[in-house]
Amino acid sequence: MLAIIGGRPTNYASLVQLYKKAAAHAGHDESQLKVGSHSIGFVGENTEQAADNFFVGNESH
Asked: For the segment 25-53, what is each residue's pLDDT rounded down to a tens digit?
């Protein structure tokens, strides 16, 4: 399993290709490989409310 934690998914395309190439070279079935991605999300009625709720007590946003 290749896990990506945050960032823009497009930035990791070359890393995923390398993962698959290395796994295939080691004899693994590329169709069985797994790739996971995680990113944070926070929602509100609008952008300002979401930011206010997320950054409670932090006046720098």
From this structure: 999 999 999 988 777 788 889 999 988 88
* Whether the predicted pLDDT of 17 surpasses 70: yes
DSSP state of 7: S
Question: Is 0.85 topped by the overall pTM?
Answer: no
Q: For the chain, how far is it from start to end, CA to CA, in angstroms?
A: 36
For residues 33 and 23, the answer to whether their CB atoms sit within 8 Å is yes
Which uninterrupted H or E stretch holds 20?
helix 13-25
Amino acid identity for residue 44 in this structure: G
Domain boundaries, the chain: 2-54
**31-57: string of b/e by CB count within 10 Å (b at 16+)?**
eeeeeeeeeeeeeeeeeeeeeeeeeee
